[in-house]
């Protein structure tokens, strides 16, 4: 059985790369819904429908566990999927919880009551749909008290990255960090709450300046999945990977190869 890694496009490859490195014996199926990206400007119903369709396709490809390596889908669709759609023999996990557990100094699945934590001023950078969902603040409130979150919707960054226009992406990152600073001059921590943003991590760090702890998801999700698999050793396979896209496989393969700097070949979903 394979583990599915889902994203609207290529950003989830940052998560896939980290989980493949950490778990070389697990079989993975990566699904990029490139025909419908970006998700970050869609409404919640639309994101829910698209995510359910993609996850169903991943079940058909042999995945009983799917990681939504897309903050927008995790924020706008995951809770509804888990509450009213998911069959009992399947699991879908999101990417918010591992990040919030790290921010709030908690171990995997620690559901003890919320408590005070070291950071008090947190900047969240995410897509417009993720910011509108307030899912980050909701999940944080279950775990921490007294944390002030300022969210910055980073319009345009995902499109620029998907188009391979890193100069535009860098300029947009700088202007979004400037906008955040006008609302919260001294964040202690910054959450890169979109799987595309680790590709721009240097630009975020440079614009944020020294002394801000930057939380980037890929490694946190890989560590969390490794913890999960210790409890579910039946998911260990032989280390194969398959790549599916709803977009043009040749174009998506080229971009993916450029991002990960190794040959990636997508097939039509
Ligand atoms: N990479 C996704 C995320 O983590 C979504 C980007 C998009 O499709 O807008 O939010």
Shape: globular
Instruction: Please compute the radius of gyration using only Cα atoms.
Output: 18 Å
How many separate structural domains? Answer: 2
Distance from first to last alpha carbon: 18 Å
How many DSSP H or I helices?
12
- Total strands: the figure is 12
At a glance:
The protein is of the alpha/beta class. The chain has helices at residues 13-22, 44-60, 71-76, 78-84, 96-103, 128-133, 135-141, 157-162, 166-183, 201-208, 217-231, 249-260, and strands spanning 2-7, 28-32, 63-68, 91-93, 115-116, 121-126, 144-145, 148-153, 189-192, 213-216, 241-245, 267-268.
Would you write up a description of this structure?
The structure is a single chain. The protein has helices at 13-22, 44-60, 71-76, 78-84, 96-103, 128-133, 135-141, 157-162, 166-183, 201-208, 217-231, 249-260; strands spanning 2-7, 28-32, 63-68, 91-93, 115-116, 121-126, 144-145, 148-153, 189-192, 213-216, 241-245, 267-268. The model has no long low-confidence stretch (mean pLDDT 93). It has 12 helices and 12 strands. The longest helix is centred in the middle third of the chain and has 18 residues, at 166-183. Helix 1 packs across helix 11, helix 5 (96-103) packs across helix 11 (217-231) and helix 9 (166-183) packs parallel to helix 10 (201-208). It is an alpha/beta fold and 269 residues long. Helix 10 links the parallel strand 9 and strand 10 (213-216). The chain binds D-glutamic acid. Residues 7-9, 11, 37-40, 70-72, 127, 130, 158, 194-196 line the site of D-glutamic acid (DGL).
């Amino acid at each position: 059985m394979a583990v599915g890694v889902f994203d609207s496009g290529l950003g989830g490859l940052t998560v896939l790369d980290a989980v493949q490195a950490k778990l070389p014996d697990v079989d993975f199926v990566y699904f990029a819904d490139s025909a419908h990206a970006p998700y970050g400007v869609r409404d919640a119903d639309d994101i829910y429908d698209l995510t359910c369709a993609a996850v169903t396709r991943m079940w058909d490809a042999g995945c009983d566990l799917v990681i939504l390596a897309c903050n927008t889908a995790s924020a706008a669709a995951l809770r509804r999927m888990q509450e009213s759609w998911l069959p009992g023999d399947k699991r879908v996990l999101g990417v918010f919880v591992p990040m919030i557990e790290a921010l709030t100094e908690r171990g995997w699945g620690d559901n003890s009551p919320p408590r005070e934590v070291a950071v008090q001023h947190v900047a969240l950078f995410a897509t417009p749909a993720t910011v509108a969902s307030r899912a980050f603040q909701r999940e944080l409130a279950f775990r921490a008290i007294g944390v002030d979150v300022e969210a910055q919707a980073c319009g345009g960054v995902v499109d620029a990255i998907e188009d391979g226009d890193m100069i535009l992406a860098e300029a947009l990152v700088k202007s979004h960090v400037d906008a955040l600073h006008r609302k919260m001059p001294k964040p202690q921590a910054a959450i890169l709450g979109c799987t595309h943003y680790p590709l721009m991590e240097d630009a975020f760090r440079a614009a944020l300046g020294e002394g801000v702890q930057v939380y980037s998801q890929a490694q946190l999700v890989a560590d969390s999945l490794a913890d999960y698999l210790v409890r579910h050793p039946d998911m260990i396979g032989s280390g194969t990977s398959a790549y599916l896209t709803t977009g043009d496989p040749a174009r998506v393969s080229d971009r993916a190869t450029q991002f990960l700097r190794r040959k990636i070949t997508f097939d039509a979903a």
